[in-house]
Write a structure and sequence with these properties.
The chain is α+β, with helices and mostly antiparallel strands. The chain folds into two domains: 18-68, no CATH class; 106-328, Glutaredoxin, CATH 3.40.30.10. The chain has helices spanning 25-28, 33-46, 61-70, 96-110, 143-154, 171-179, 199-210, 224-227, 230-234, 263-274, 291-298, 318-328; strands at residues 134-138, 158-163, 186-189, 194-196, 254-258, 279-283, 305-308, 313-315. It has an eight-stranded mixed beta sheet, with helices on both faces. Residues 71-103 are annotated as: Disordered.
Length: 333
Amino acid sequence: MVVAQVDRDVCVRSSPTAAFFLVSRRGVDEATNHSWIALEHVRGGGLGGPFPEPDGLTARPHVWAQQAVCANRPKRPIQNSPPPTTGGDPSQERNDVVEVTTSSISSLARLPWGSKVATSSGENTGSATSAPTLQLYEFEACPFCRRVREAMTELDLSAEVYPCPKGSRRHREMVKKIGGKEQFPLLVDASTGVTMYESGDIVNYLFRQYGQGRSPSSGLLESTIFTGWVPTLLRAGRGMTLWNKAGVVPAEKLELFSYENNSYARIVREALCELELPYVLQNVGEGSSKMDALLRISGSEQVPYLIDLNTGFQSGDYKKILSYLFQQYSIGS
C-alpha cells in the first residue's frame, strides 16, 4: 500500500473523505467492498469531481492528493438537500456485527491514542448548563479532526462540538464566518481568544495551554498519516454527510460522555455528525477527572452516555441512543 506524503491538513472545503486520497488504487483492493464503493463515489464526482487518473499515481501520490483536494474547482449548483450518505440510510436498523467489528478494528488501528488521560489540568470542564471554553468545528470522518479529538482525550478536556458534515446547513457557514475559509478542524478557545486551523498547530496549542508542560504523546501527530485514515475507510459513509432528513435543531446542546477511541462512542458521534447536532463533549478516557461525575449521573463508568436536557432522555446503550437521535431529530419523525 502506498501512503501519500501530506504536508498539511487535507480535510478542506467540501471534502469529508479527503483522507481517501492518501491511499493508492493498489492498496484499496484490500479494502472492504463498501469502502471501495465509497472511494469510487469520491473519485467519480461525489465531492466535486470527477478527478482524472493522474500520471505516476503510485510514484507521486502526495502531489495528486493535494492537487485533487485543494484545487479550485467550479462550484456545483446548490441543491435543496444534501446527497445521501455512502453508508446508506443511517436511521435504519443496522447489522450490529458489522457496525461493532468495523468500529473496533478502527479503534485498534489508533491505539494507544485517544484512550487514556496523559495529564489533567482540571480546567475547561463543563456541562450543558456550564459550557466549556473550547469550541471545535469538525466532522467525525476526518482523520485530522480525529487527531485533535485524540489530544483532547489525553488532556481530559471538554469542548463544545459543532459537527460540520458535507451538506451542512448551519455549522460550515459558521466556520467561514469565524475563520474565513471552509477548512477543518477549526478550534476556538474563548478563554484566550485564539482561533486556529491546522490540526498539528491545534494539538501543539492544546498541550502548551492545558498540558502542564507535557508534549504531545509520541507518535500522535506523525501517526495520522499512516493509520489516521483507517477509521475513515472502515467506517465509509458514516460521520461525513448530512442525512437528508436532518433539520430539527435542539434548544439546548446535547451532552455526550465519551472518549475518542471507544468503538461504541464512535458510532454515536457519527450519528450526531450526520444530524448536525451540536453537543458538549465530556471526555472520560482512562484516568479522567470526570469519571466520578459520570458515575454519579449514570451509576456506571460505561460510555457512551448521552444526556438530552431538551427531553430528559439519558442512556448508555449506543443502540438506544441511535434510535432516539434519529427519531427525535429527523424531519417528519
